[in-house]
Write a structure and sequence with these properties.
- The protein is α+β, with helices and mostly antiparallel strands and about 475 residues long.
- It folds into three domains: about 200 residues, Beta Barrel (Thrombin, subunit H); about 90 residues, Pdz3 Domain, CATH 2.30.42.10; about 90 residues, PDZ domain (Pdz3 Domain), CATH 2.30.42.10.
- Helices cover about 20% and strands about 30% of the residues.
- The protein is built from eleven helices and 27 strands.
- The strands form five sheets. A seven-stranded antiparallel sheet has the order 5-4-1-2-3-7-6.
- The longest helix is centred in the N-terminal third of the chain and has 22 residues.
- The radius of gyration is 25 Å and the shape is flat.
Length: about 475
């Protein structure tokens, strides 16, 4: 009797297990169909003679204006190699990856699944979304189809293909953990509503695709949360709805124009919600309106709470930059606010992120010419930065083109250039005039502000 009962339990367990197994997705067809469109990206930074931020003690007291004189005596840095992933988005050779995969690289190599290798050209990069568009001289390539990330829900199965730790075309699966995650950058910028998943993502997976069960790319793997350097079950991908727009702009004009409102915001706590007449905490509380900004011209005031923008609900403060950033500059939209406990609606003409006056930046005709001789795009300094950093003149760096002189000098988006060579930079016009007159193949000093602190580096135009 006991033996019979045991046999029944075993059969029952096997039946339950087989049913559970049958409900799990089989990713074999998806991997086989799409692996050939996933690429491995290798980069080399050849190094340069650059002045370290940590000079020997005997040089620490030397004034900034003379520090560049030490630089030619420093030894050449060794080449640094790195790797990542990417995928083909057009048959004629356009490839998408993360900006941080190719940032600062002098050489970029794209390797296909059939082991063909191509030198890649950078068409454009976007630091704020961490995306880069490359081009290789190949045709009739396998292309991955885009999916709609806006239709994703927590709990759906997803799969990643990439080269973790250099292991080519590795696949890992998991589920969507959450949508719309806000992860501010070091400069407190927050323009990507990340997809969070528990897919095993490791170094080398960056820039690779995240698929839904239909084999469509709904995300681009970008970041992980880890204490060990490996996967900790928290990975973040750039949603396809944002990536498609960024890639189209990079392909068309070599840069990305983002919407700008000109406000400082914070979350609405339970106490603040009660004090400001809300039944529950939601929306983005306006802590500061920048003078002359689109928000100021629209009549937005300190203390207003934005609860809807361009028809989209704003639940948390991080939702507002996600929505505003994806609106084309110059577009007039409606926003719903709560002021002194009462709802109101305002119309606002969205400005351009990085432009002090909110005007749409001028288009450049050739992507290859983006950044000029230094490989850097600049804009006027916003008044808020001038006041915060106590500076009057200069230009703000909007984008740095990988592999160009500015990137090799260590410049980043958000830096303020005050001097190039031995000439002061007052505004965009004077910057362009100074750069046009710089000699080639000579080490020159460049002075800039980062986080309000002045610094000197050297820069060299190789022509």
């Amino acid at each position: 009797m006991v033996k019979r009962f045991t046999q029944v339990l075993v059969l029952l367990w096997l039946g339950i297990a087989s049913v559970a197994y049958a409900d799990l997705p089989n990713f074999a067809d998806l991997v086989e169909k799409n692996s050939s469109a996933v690429v491995k990206i290798s980069t080399v930074d050849k190094g340069q003679s650059s002045l370290s931020d940590r000079l020997p003690p005997q040089f620490q007291d030397i004034p900034d204006i003379f520090r560049h004189l030490l630089e030619p005596r420093r030894r050449q840095d060794r080449p640094v190699a790195s790797m990542g992933s990417g995928f083909v988005v057009s048959k004629d050779g356009y490839v998408v990856t993360n900006n941080h995969v190719i940032d600062g690289a002098d050489e970029i190599t794209v390797r296909l699944s059939d082991r063909r290798e191509y030198n890649a050209k950078v068409i454009g990069v976007d630091v704020l979304s961490d995306l880069a568009l490359l081009k290789i001289e190949a045709d009739d390539l396998t292309v991955i189809e885009w999916g709609d990330s806006d239709e994703l829900r927590a709990g759906e199965w997803v799969l990643a293909i990439g080269s973790p730790f250099g292991l080519d075309y590795s696949a890992s699966a998991g589920i969507i953990s959450a949508m719309g995650r806000s992860i501010p950058s070091r400069r407190s910028e927050n323009y990507v509503p990340f997809i969070q998943s528990d897919v095993a993502i490791n170094p080398g997976n960056s820039g690779g695709p995240l698929f839904n069960l239909e084999g469509e790319v709904i995300g681009i793997n970008s970041q992980i949360f880890t204490r060990s350097g490996g996967s900790n079950g928290l990975s973040f991908a750039i949603p396809s709805s944002l990536a498609i727009n960024v890639i189209e702009q990079l392909k068309g004009k070599g840069r990305v124009d983002r919407g700008w409102l000109g406000v400082g915001i914070q979350d609405v706590t339970r106490d603040l919600a009660e004090a400001m007449g809300l039944r529950k905490p939601h929306g983005a509380l306006v802590a500061q309106v920048e003078p002359g900004s689109p928000a100021a011209e629209a009549g937005l005031l300190d203390g207003d709470i934005v609860i809807r923008f361009d028809g989209k609900k704003i639940d948390e403060s991080g939702d507002l930059p996600h929505v505003v950033g994806q609106i084309m500059p110059g577009t007039e939209v409606e926003m719903t606010i709560v002021r002194k406990g009462k709802k109101d609606k305002l119309d606002v003409v969205v400005g351009t992120l990085g432009a002090a006056d909110g005007e749409v930046a001028e288009n450049r005709p050739e992507p290859s010419a983006v950044g000029g001789r230094l490989g850097v795009m600049v804009t006027p300094i916003p008044d808020s930065i001038k006041q915060r950093w106590n500076i009057k003149d200069g230009v703000m760096v909007k984008q740095v083109v990988p592999g160009k002189p500015a990137a090799k000098a260590g410049l980043r988006s958000g830096d303020v250039i005050a001097q190039v060579g031995f000439d002061a930079v007052n505004d965009v016009e004077s910057f362009e005039k100074v750069v046009d007159g710089l000699p080639a193949n000579e080490l020159l000093p460049i002075r800039f502000f980062r986080g309000g602190r002045p610094a000197f580096r050297t820069i060299q135009i190789e022509e």
